Amino acid sequence: MAETIVFQSLPSRPAPVNTEGLVPWVKNNLFANWQSSIVTIVVGAFLLYYVPQLINWAVITATTVANADACRAEGVGACWGVIREKYRLIIFGRYPFAEQWRPLVATLLMVGLLVMSCTRMFWKTWLIAAWVLVLAAFFALMYGGVGGLSVVQTDRWGGLPLTIMLATLSIVLCFPIAIAVALGRRSRLPAIKTFCTIYVELIRGVPLISVLFMASFMFPLFMPQGVTIDVLIRVLVGVTLFAAAYMAEVIRGGLQAMPKGQAEAAASLGLSYWQTQFKIILPQALAMVVPGIMNNFIGLFKDTSLVYIVSLYELTGALGLALNSDADWRPFKLEGYLFIVAIYFTFCFAMSRYSLWIEKQLNKSKLR
User: Fold this and answer.
1) DSSP element (H, E) containing 313
2) Under 8 Å between Cβ of 151 and 145
3) Three-state SS letters, 57-93
């Protein structure tokens, strides 16, 4: 007799937990456990207490009138009028007032070039020519002496144009030097390896201020009598060499992370040393250290503020020049520093986001 099989339905399973949206994000990131909950509550209470006061100071009771007496009135919060009064001196430094359209145009050209260089659709061979033309136009506008423009010595350059120029040229120049030094430190030739090691350790053993001081004040003492090099060039060389030493170690870390099988496979195909490095090893090594490279670039952009010690008034130095020379506006340095903080943050945040975009593009091959 055949056995009768009775089918029984399984109990219903609970509905899947929603992992997307605001509530799941808050639960997972702010109240995941009791420690996280306590920190969230403490930070939330801190923000609830201080943020309204900050908004009241910065927005509600703030004044934008370019009048120092109005800023000193009782009950007035932030004095953004100092920005309206001193913004040209902060942005352009000691550059002649009537000629400040020149650094404005030069800076827009430089920023436009940087944006083009970071956009894939512009990665064409003509971009190299664009770099040459824009750099030539930048220095022609800033220095003058051509096209009927009056000459403005480099010691009068300052503000945002000087900051962008120093950061851009230092980044562009230090990168190939860093690659060469990183390869040199891994070289089997003792002389090259020793030279690169001494260079890196010597530069990393001193602060950037010392390098700038040496480049500005000590280096001219070793030059032949009658031979002088512009202080801006000396500072640019010092910043570039300093940044290259740190960048070289980041790149060397990527090179050391590469498995030996890559180089051995290239050698088995008959590729030379330089073909192996530039076609196989370096592209992969650089891709692995993109965060470290961009971190150095951001640090280099901010380190340009140190050229103030050699009497080059970049963005931070121009702010001190603008406020220290005017006793009426001197009490409102905080608002001025917040203004340049916003400028620095804008550029650094853009560089950070661009780094994330590059990482995303490089990781596409790993997601296949």
Assistant:
1) strand 313-314
2) yes
3) HHHHCCECCCCHHHHCCCCCCCECHHHHHHHHHHHHC
Question: Using 50, 70 and 90 to split pLDDT, how confident is the model at 353?
Answer: very high
User: Hunting for tokens 């080059």 — which residue is that?
Assistant: 312
Cβ contact 252:186 at 8 Å: yes
Distance from C-alpha of 316 to C-alpha of 308, rounded to nearest angstrom = 8
pLDDT at 323: 87
Backbone angles phi, psi at 73, to 5 degrees: -65, 150
Query: What pLDDT score was predicted for residue 361?
Result: 84
Domains contained in the chain, CATH given: 96-263+278-305+344-367 (1.10.3720.10)
Residues in contact with 234: Cβ distance below 8 Å, sequence separation at least 6, in sequence order:
215, 216, 219, 220
d(CA 300, CA 304): 7
Q: For residue 314, which phi and psi values (nearest 5 degrees)?
A: -75, -160
The arithmetic mean of pLDDT across residues 40-54, rounded, is 91
- How many H-runs (helices) and E-runs (strands) does the chain carry? 16, 2
Taking CA atoms, 340 is separated from 93, 146, 256, in Å, by: 13, 32, 39
Q: Look at residue 314 and give its three-state secondary structure.
A: strand
Query: How many angstroms separate the first and last alpha carbons of the chain?
Result: 57
Nearest-CA neighbor of 171 among 247, 105, 222, 106? 247
Burial of residue 137 (number of CB atoms within 10 Å: 0-12, 13-18, 19+): middle
Rounded-to-integer distance, Cα 187 and Cα 196, Å:
10
3-state helix, strand, coil split of the chain in percent (to 5) is: 75, 0, 25
Within 10 angstroms of residue 90's Cβ, the number of other Cβ atoms is: 27
Cα separation, 2 vs 332, in Å, equals 97
**CA 329 to mean position of chain CA atoms:** 30
